[in-house]
Amino acid sequence: MILDAIESASRDELETLQASRLRATLRRRGLDGELRDLPFTVKDDLRAAYPLGLIAVPHSELVRIHASSGTGGKATVVGYTRADLEVWTQVMARALYGAGVRPGMVVHNAYGYGLFTGGLGFHQGAERLGATVVPVSGGLTARQVMLLRDLRAQVLCCTPSYALHIAESGVEDLRLEVGLFGAEPWSEEMRAELESRLGLDALNVYGLSEIVGPGVSAECREGRDGSHVQEDHFLVEVIDPASGDAVPQGELGELVFTTLTKEALPLIRYRTGDIASVDASPCVCGRTTARMGPVRGRRDDMLIIRGVNLYPSQVEHALLGVEGIAPHWQLVVSRPAQLDEVTVHCEPADGLADRDELAKRVRMALREGIGVGIAVELLEPGAVPRSEGKAVRVVDRR
Question: What share of the chain is helix, strand, coil (3-state, %, to 5)?
Answer without folding.
Answer: 30, 25, 45
